[in-house]
């Protein structure tokens, strides 16, 4: 398809991108979320489409700097819906999407901070009655209210789908990387804040949050160049080294032996 024809198919398209505040994996500093930034990049690649960025949450100084990272991609404005700490942002996002009336909603697969459950796109789609596309890699064309897209599959494979709009799509690391954020546009862009009633997340309020424990180490690590060798090693019967054969023991003695082995291997602490 000629480039001009493909670009013209996006004329009049209204795209909303839901953005969040990310966290750098090493420094833990606030930043634009990687998957959300890829979603913004995908929206900007749709020539002549109207792109709206929406964020629901607090507006602290760290959050503001992170959100300006999206403005530095060439976006003039981020719609900031103020929400109190511990609020459920889904109702506020539903109201914002109904006001914006986009044909396509893009968002990352899951947030880098907070719950990070990845359920928000599905909750929004359920409330709005829209289909969901997960693992969106590319939007090829949009014609007569139908989007032709490529969905990312494991091992680098792609699947072509045709979806009736409006729809919600999640973008992960298989999508093209986002452009760098420029300092000047990030400073000139506007964070258009508006108040919206906060709905308390009663379920989250009952949770007890603590730092994650170190993951248990794997009992056996198989290193091999070919998949055939790895399969043979995984299927092979393990040699009995320092193992212990228990016979004619009571359930309590067997349980104690298993518990001691799990502690020795680092599965239990």
From TrEMBL:
Matching Pfam families: ETF
Keyword vocabulary terms for this entry: Electron transport, Transport
Residue span, Electron transfer flavoprotein alpha/beta-subunit N-terminal domain: 21-203
InterPro entries referenced in this protein's UniProt entry, alphabetically: ETF_a/b_N, ETF_b, Rossmann-like_a/b/a_fold
UniProt similarity note: Belongs to the ETF beta-subunit/FixA family.
Protein name: Electron transfer flavoprotein subunit beta
Organism, scientific name: Modicisalibacter luteus
